[in-house]
Amino acid sequence: MNSSRALKLVVASVLGLGGGAVADGAIAGTSTCTGSGCWVYPPFLPNPGGGGGVGGGWGGGDGSSDPRDEYHKISWCTDAPGYAWDAHGCDLYNPPVLTVNGCGTAGGVPVPDFLVAPGALQGGAAAFGAMFKAACDAHDMCYGTHGNDKHQCDERLRQDMIADGQQKLGGAFPALGVFVIGQATAYARFLQWEWIEPWTSQPAYDRSQMDAACRTSSAAFKNYCDHLGFGS
Questions:
Q1: What is the pLDDT at residue 70?
Q2: What pLDDT, on the 0 to 100 scale, is given for residue 134?
Q3: Helices (H), the chain
Q4: Hey, how many other C-beta atoms are within 10 angstroms of the C-beta on 202?
Q5: In degrees rounded to 5, what are phi and psi of residue 80?
Q6: CB 80 within 8 A of CB 31
Q7: Residues near 156 by Cβ (< 8 Å), separated by ≥ 6?
Q8: Segment-wise mean pLDDT, segments of 10 residues, the chain, 232 residues
Q9: Can you tell me the distance from the alpha carbon of 63 to that of 210, in angstroms, rounded to the nearest whole number?
Q10: CA 111 to CA 123: how far, in whole Å?
């Protein structure tokens, strides 16, 4: 434990003693960990500071200045990183960064960002470059946003690929339009294919959601604890 954190604990103890006894159940906030990750919920008191009126948590506007409020906050912010987040590989101070990599790979095999067309049409298709990269990047972001549904992300990929492809073709190459729709549909179906999904896209989605849950928890922790010097 570093000296600054030790000092905060001493201050918390003094505040707690000065404000009278505090029920153990009121000190800690609510934390939830599941197979999909962990979430931080700041402490909640129906009557902040023990004064009159009902508030929605800390600083309920009841006009009181009970020192136990600060004691609860410091105790919770001190304990939060060490609950279950570390065990789930989540560092609340340094959450994983959301990254995108286009259409990426499937089982180690590169998945093309460009339109694939047969025979003589491939030259025309190649001229449009990585037309599906933006759609695949958006798919990565969809997987990496906490609470998003996997199959909705997969369907959005299909829609985005078709929209981007049609926009880039601009009606100049109508023969390629059918291949845009076919490739977009193939990608979405592959991501949801029952014989493949459990070993490919589902683990990727689960990992992304774990990272997303960590980012969400980190943001809540920092927002709640920054002013006490714990969020950074």
A1: 67
A2: 97
A3: 3-18, 24-27, 68-79, 121-126, 133-143, 150-169, 174-192, 201-225
A4: 14
A5: -50, -50
A6: yes
A7: 138, 139, 142
A8: 37 33 38 58 41 31 51 72 68 91 83 91 90 97 96 97 93 85 94 91 93 87 76 58
A9: 40
A10: 18
Q: Tell me how far the alpha carbon of residue 70 is from its chain's centroid.
A: 29
Give yes or no for a contact between 36 and 210, defined as CB atoms under 8 angstroms apart. Answer: yes
Spatial separation of the C-alpha atoms in residues 210 and 204, rounded to whole Å: 10
Q: What is the structure's pLDDT at 159?
A: 97
What distances in angstroms separate CA 83 from CA 59, 63, 80, 87, 144, one per listed residue? Answer: 25, 32, 6, 8, 23
Distances (CA, A) of 189 to 62, 106, 118, 162, 198: 56, 13, 20, 14, 13
Amino acid at 194: E
What was the pLDDT predicted at 217? 83
Closest listed residue to residue 184, CA positions, set 130, 150, 144, 136: 136
Residue type, position 107, single letter: G
As given in the structure block, the two tokens for residue 220 are 């809540």
Tell me the pTM: 0.70
pLDDT at 172: 72
Residue bearing tokens 């991501």: 191
Q: Encoding tokens for residue 60? A: 């309920």
Residue 130 CB partners (closer than 8 Å, separation 6+): 102, 113, 114
The two tokens of residue 176 are 């390629």
